[in-house]
Amino acid sequence: MAILLETKKLTKRFGGLLAIDKLEFHIQRGEVLGLIGPNGSGKSTLFNLISGFLRPTSGRILFDGKEITGLSPERTSGLGIVRSWQATTIFGHFERTVLENIMVASHLRERTGFWEALLSTPGYRREGEELEKEALRLLDLMGLLEHKDRIAMNMPVALQRRLAVANCLATHPKLVMLDEPVAGMSMEESRDLLQRVSELRNQGYTLLIVEHNVRVAMDVCDRMVVLNYGRKIAEGPPTEVRQNKEVIAAYLGEEG
Fold first, then answer.
1. Is residue 116 part of a domain?
2. Does 58 map to a domain?
3. Which end of the chain is more exposed for a tag (fewer CB within 10 A), N or C?
4. Cα 50–55–58 angle (5° rounding)?
5. What is the pLDDT of residue 182?
6. Residue 100 is assigned to a structural domain of this protein
7. Sequential DSSP letters for 52-109
8. Contact of 193 with 185, CB cutoff 8 Å
């Protein structure tokens, strides 16, 4: 598979703290890559560097054959990188339904202009119908179709997190970055969501997942990258990573 994103000697310092240490890794098109590591290992910093919320101290980030090092979040988003946050993010006010919520996300890539929308031209109405059809497809993909008329903010956290993923997909991204998508969920709910996420590869999506629930993450990811103190200590299929002595030591201590 072709490489979609890669970093070259990526480094980030916060004063005397070395958060990311000459990191080199890549994501292939159409794969689900898991990013794991103990607390403070640099996972969130790496996410923020890729999505443009932080500028690296040195090194490079390449995406889809283009240099994106230091670009703003708006620029990286425009190139096709979309991310979720640890806190569940839902669009709109408290009374917006699930379908209305994802329609807001879909309109972020709306093609018609101001006057077409104001005058409700046939082109604008046709685009609205297409966006609704696509929104329903994404809700079905994430197991939310039967909930389309529910108030999004009133749903359980597990369903809200599914909707957050669907909102990411609504922007037609090239890379979906999910930051702890199953935080606060039960093991059963976590497995269900991550299994749905892993199946997105069959729809042509590429995903980078940060997850503290290592056992669940290893069950659904094609490859894993493990960080510790900002340094990559392991990379490869889950079956290899879970047996890596340095990974075991990082999570459990040398004796573990």
1. no
2. yes
3. C
4. 95
5. 87
6. no
7. TSS--SEEEEEETTEE-TT--HHHHHHHTEEE--SS----S-TT-BHHHHHHHHHHTT
8. yes
- The CA distances from residue 49 to 71, 73, 85, 212, in Å, are 9, 10, 14, 19
Question: Which pLDDT belongs to residue 131?
Answer: 86
At residue 49, what are phi and psi to the nearest 5 degrees? -70, -45
**Residue 112, in any domain of the structure:** no
CATH number at residue 72: 3.40.50.300
Residue 203, both tokens = 């729809």
Which residue is listed with tokens 């359980």? 156
Question: Whole-angstrom Cα distance, residue 50 to residue 210?
Answer: 13
Judge residue 255's burial from the number of C-beta atoms within 10 Å of its C-beta, 0-12 exposed, 13-18 middle, 19 or more buried. exposed
Q: How many Å apart are CA 56 and CA 242, to the nearest integer?
A: 30
Instruction: Give the pLDDT score at 184.
Output: 82
Its pTM stands at 0.86
- CA atoms lying within 13 Å on the CB side of residue 164: 25
Residues of the chain with pLDDT under 50: 111-119, 255-256
Closest alpha carbon to 210 in 165, 179, 176, 164? 179
Q: How far apart are CA 110 and CA 170, in angstroms?
A: 11
Confidence at residue 62, expressed as pLDDT on a 0 to 100 scale: 98
Tokens of 40: 């403070």
Q: Which residues contact 3 (CB under 8 A, 6 or more apart)?
A: 26, 27, 28, 29
CA 92 to chain centre: 20
The domain of 243 spans 3-80+173-252
Instruction: Report strand pairing: 66-67 vs 58-63.
Output: antiparallel
